[in-house]
Structure to design on (360 residues):
């Protein structure tokens, strides 16, 4: 069956394709079929193109370096790309950094999305009716826009928006803009809200890669607060399956929640990583002795969990990996790619230091 939106020769724009999830998406798209893939990215501190450059079909990907927060640069990039499908992932994404610099998150995630929507609105008006009929603007968002759950319940497409960090507030704002451009300007949009991703090539500031690299370096592994915050972990490749199904067959004007059926406390995640470290390195002392409780993140959301039944029933998606399988794949990848990980860690003098603490 031919794909109704990712057709042969389609010009697919991925924004944020030099990041963790965008890179994984591009690697999959250039393998999939004869679509042309364009990547608008400003190349920020978390960006890296190695994962794409190492692919066999890398020449089918074109980088268009531009900052979406710059209106004119965005317009000329869209003019150059002339897309049939847009998958918008570009955003600042590290919650601790959003606490230190909320303005940057508003500029990149809110103004950046506004500039992109406006450039795409003009572009959409100019394309032929045939291209219009299969055009879609797919906005990739997070479950964090729904706030925090207590011990029971799940987020779904009907959940109220209740963002609580500068990051989630900026993503919630961008979701609202995308919906408004659909209702007011009839732009064909779809939104997905996904839970926490992990996997190879993730910038080592997020919990899982940071714990792996700290453990391998025999450094203390920080655990925020009481360690009982729960996330619904999803392997990045399973997220990409969901994104490709949604952009291909999702219904315009709808949103889909994507979760991993992988709820774990942060403490459980770190213990599982330490078990892998113990088993794979054969060190006598357990690595779990390196885990250290540290000051909690201000406003730390307690629990996220997703009810994925809509995407599962309507688009036949479910994750292919269990948390344990995906964690081992991820662990082995970092073990074999320490040079890359250390290079990323040392970018802009980050070095794995604690970010996002309020000053006294
Ligand atoms: N990582 C997760 O667990 C997760 C979960 C759900 C949703 N998401 C969403 O998925 C998307 C991608 O997340 P990720 O983890 O790959 O992030 P990432 O930080 O690894 O990559 C983001 C990329 O966006 C680019 N970017 C940021 N601002 C830009 C701008 N103004 N103009 C152009 N490029 C810009 C950065 O340079 C970077 O390459 C984000 O929108 C995020 O909110 C992430």
């Amino acid at each position: 069956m031919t794909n109704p939106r990712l057709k042969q020769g389609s010009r697919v724009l991925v924004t944020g394709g030099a990041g963790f999830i965008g890179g994984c998406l591009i690697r999959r798209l250039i393998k999939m079929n004869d679509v042309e893939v364009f990547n608008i990215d400003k190349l920020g501190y978390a960006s890296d193109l190695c994962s794409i450059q190492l692919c066999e079909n890398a020449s089918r990907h074109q980088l268009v370096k531009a900052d979406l927060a710059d209106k004119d640069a965005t317009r000329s990039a869209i003019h150059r790309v002339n897309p049939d499908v847009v998958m918008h992932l570009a955003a600042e994404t590290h919650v601790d950094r959003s606490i230190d610099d909320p303005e940057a998150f508003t500029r990149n995630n809110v103004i950046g999305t506004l500039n992109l929507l406006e450039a795409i609105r003009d572009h959409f008006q100019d394309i032929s009716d045939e291209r219009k009929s299969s055009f879609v603007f797919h906005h990739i968002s997070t479950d964090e826009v729904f706030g925090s759950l207590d011990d029971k319940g799940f987020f779904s497409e009907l959940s109220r928006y209740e963002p609580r960090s500068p990051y989630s507030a900026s993503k919630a704002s961008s979701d609202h803009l995308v919906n408004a451009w659909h209702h007011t300007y009839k732009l064909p949009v779809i939104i997905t809200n996904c839970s926490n991703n992990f996997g190879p090539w993730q910038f080592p500031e997020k919990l899982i890669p940071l714990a792996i690299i700290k453990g391998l370096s025999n450094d203390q592994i920080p655990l925020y607060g009481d360690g009982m915050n729960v996330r619904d972990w999803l392997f990045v490749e399973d997220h990409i399956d969901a994104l490709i199904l949604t952009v291909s067959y999702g219904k315009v004007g709808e949103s889909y929640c994507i979760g991993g059926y992988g709820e774990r406390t942060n403490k459980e995640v770190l213990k599982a990583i330490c078990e892998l470290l113990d088993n794979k390195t054969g060190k006598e002392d357990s690595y779990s002795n390196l885990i250290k409780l540290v000051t909690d993140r201000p406003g730390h959301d307690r629990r996220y969990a997703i009810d994925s039944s809509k995407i599962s029933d309507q688009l036949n998606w479910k994750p292919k990996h269990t948390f344990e399988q995906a964690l081992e794949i991820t662990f082995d990848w970092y073990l074999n790619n320490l040079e890359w990980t250390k290079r990323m860690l040392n970018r802009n003098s980050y070095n794995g230091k604690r970010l996002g603490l309020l000053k006294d």
User: Anything to note?
Assistant: The chain has a mean pLDDT of 96.
